[in-house]
Amino acid sequence: MAEKNEKKQKPKKPKKPKHPFNWLSMLLFATMFQLISMMPVIFLSEEINIEVVGVFGGFILTEWLYFVCARWFAKQRATELEIIAFTLSGIGLVTVASVYPNYALKQFIAILIGLAAFIVLLAIMRNVEVISALRIPVAVAAVGLLCVNLVMAETINGALNWISLGSFSIQPSELVKVAFIFVGAATLEKLQSTHSLTRYLIFSLGCVGALFLMRDFGTALIFFATFLVIAFMRSGDIKTIGLISVAAVLGAGLIIYFKPYVASRFEAYRHVWEYANDGGFQQTRVLSYSASGGFFGLGIGEGRLRHIFASTTDLIFGVICEEWGLVVGFCVILCFAFVAVYALRLARHARSTVYSIAAVASAALLLVQLSLNVFGITDLLPLTGVTLPFISRGGTSMICSWALFAFIKSADIKTYPILEKQMEDK
Amino acid sequence: MELDAIYDFAVEASRYLLAGLALLIIGSCVFSLVTRRFGTRVGSYLVEAKTKKRIPLTRWENSIGRSTTCDVILTTATVSRFHAVISKRRTGWVVADTNSRTGVFVNGEQIDKPVQLSHGDKVSFGTAMYEFFDVDVDDLEREKEKERRKQARVAARVPVRTGNEGVEFMPALIDEAAEKAYVIGCENCVVGRSPDCDIRLKYQTVSSEHAKVFKLGSGWFVEDLGSANGTKVNARFVTTGRRRLRDGDILSFGGAIFVFNEHYKVRKK
């Protein structure tokens, strides 16, 4: 009896709230999703492509390695963002490998570099002091990169934004996206003591102007939208931002008035069926083929949109809708919506305005880019030729997407368990 | 043929499985976002010097000023609209002046670059005076104080009383009316009016050699030495033999009344 009483009196360990979806189950879901999607690609051809199999194996191995390290060694307690990043990268990798098996390895290497950039940026973003010290060098480097781009870039697909480095080429405007947000983020102390947007406005004008000169209007629009978000978060000054927006619209009108060739790029907009065989070729194909996919798709490798030009870059969302189904396509959009909500919630409790601005601006940039891509190919917006983050083929775009996720993740105190512990111990 | 059928079935099933898994992944992410708690924790306080009113600093970076958009709104006229920022950094709490007109002073010195704040520092924004109060340090100090008191209590329990060095306890007869104590200095003590007695009582009713107070074993006793007016212990005459004395007993020699105190505090010689 006495023993029983003693047992009763023993203090119970506080039970952790039970979570039906822990990181391991989420990782298992993601892996299952990837394995199922990879199977048709591997068995599609008569001969099994060893390189593609190796790339898929490497991808899943990387994913597991990352999660095990992050959870067990780095003791991170929130890994939803990485689940999303790996799932989206997986969709992209499988689609690219199914259309162009030769590009699979390149895409996989891009994912690896992106992951490395993600980890490095997380380490840099740990301390506010380091960010403050790096802001000006990064701004100078970004402007320098754009200038170099203007001087020595090659024109590919109408835009002058590729620098060729030996066997591969990079797109500096993608890297500048990361720098743009990095420079835009500032501590509250900085924001409150300057109260002016002038310096950042000049930097932004430089970036957007260079992009206009490169005729990369899609990216220029993304930069402008991101600038508006950052400017609002920095100053909260709606009047100035309204003024800037009006000026931008007027400027764009002037450009179209004086340079009619710019407008000619948009002439098919809202009239794609009238230009079904020239200006609206891609949009009309996306609309009809993705509709034929239905809710659950035709099956990977069974679609016809894959034979259209730029099917793995600009039109990849159409390929996903056709072959993977509307449900998966919708989930891709939901993933970005989730990231945006996640960033907003993190921003309200971030350690500094640096993280709030960086996280919200990154989420906004990703959302704008997603909208331009998805609405562009479905003719709701003019087709501007921007990539779908994480999914489209392209190394620099992939690295940029991972880096933007690092900005969002760094706003989360759970990313830095050591920091969190230090704060509690002190 | 059969293999083909299985393959076709697998392809067909995979279409639905993919959609289901995609929904499951995004659903689990949304679930974990919804169930996650983003708590705010009060990091420190500013205590107003005059009113002792506490203003909590609930964020990692707190803007301080007269503007209503500030986290901490100070209504003093000398405070700028955006006066200063107090932020929690890796090294601790830091205050920075954000181009205010009247300046920020830490312990009376004006600051021109961010300055580390420690618990108890006096911070002034213009003429508004505050004391900085770090909750973590405050908790720590409270904890230390508690520990110190506990140790003191434990230490006090080991010897019977502390603070009694240089003091000894002796039996004594205490005249409460005259607030006078007669210490019983020997083990065989004669009480009486005569100057030869160990305890001399100058009362008319006390005989020259009235009674004897003596130690036997560990106890004290009183014995009447044939006095004229007799000796009483607790209002009863000691007639023959001796009577044991206990602490607080009332002794009467003739009409002179005393209280027996066995442990009377005497300064050591």
Q: How would the blueprint of this fold be written?
A:
The complex is a heterodimer of chains A (426) and B (269).
Chain A lengths: L1 H8 L13 H22 L5 H24 L6 H20 L4 H21 L3 H25 L1 E3 L2 E7 L2 E3 L1 H13 L3 H7 L3 H16 L3 H19 L2 H21 L1 H6 L15 H13 L22 H9 L1 H23 L4 H25 L17 H16 L6 H9 L1
Antiparallel strand pairs in A: 1-2, 2-3
Chain B lengths: L1 H34 L8 E5 L5 E4 L3 E5 L6 E2 L10 E6 L2 E6 L6 E3 L2 E2 L4 E2 L5 E4 L2 E7 H23 L9 E9 L4 E4 L4 E5 L6 E2 L10 E6 L2 E6 L6 E3 L2 E2 L4 E4 L4 E4 L2 E12 L2
Parallel strand pairs in B: 3-4, 14-15
Antiparallel strand pairs in B: 1-2, 1-11, 3-5, 5-6, 6-9, 7-8, 7-10, 10-11, 12-13, 12-22, 14-16, 16-17, 17-20, 18-19, 18-21, 21-22
What would your notes on this structure say?
The complex is a heterodimer of chains A (426) and B (269). In chain A, 70% of the residues lie in helices and 3% in strands. Chain A has 426 residues and is mainly alpha-helical. Chain A has one domain (20-425). Chain A has a 3-stranded antiparallel sheet with strand order 1-2-3, with helices on one face. In chain A, helix 2 packs parallel to helix 4 (80-99), helix 5 runs parallel beside helix 17 and helix 7 (172-184) packs antiparallel against helix 9 (198-213). The longest helix of chain A is centred in the N-terminal third of the chain and has 25 residues, at 128-152. Chain A is globular, with a radius of gyration of 23 Å. The model of chain A has no long low-confidence stretch (mean pLDDT 87). With 269 residues, chain B is α+β, with helices and mostly antiparallel strands. In chain B, the strands form 4 sheets. Chain B has a 6-stranded antiparallel sheet with strand order 2-1-11-10-7-8. In chain B, strands 13-12-22-21-18-19 form a 6-stranded antiparallel sheet, with no helix packed on it. In chain B, strands 4-3-5-6-9 form a 5-stranded mixed sheet, with no helix packed on it. Chain B is elongated, with a radius of gyration of 42 Å. At the A-B interface, helix 2, helix 4, helix 8, helix 15 and helix 18 of A face helix 1, strand 3, strand 5 and strand 6 of B.
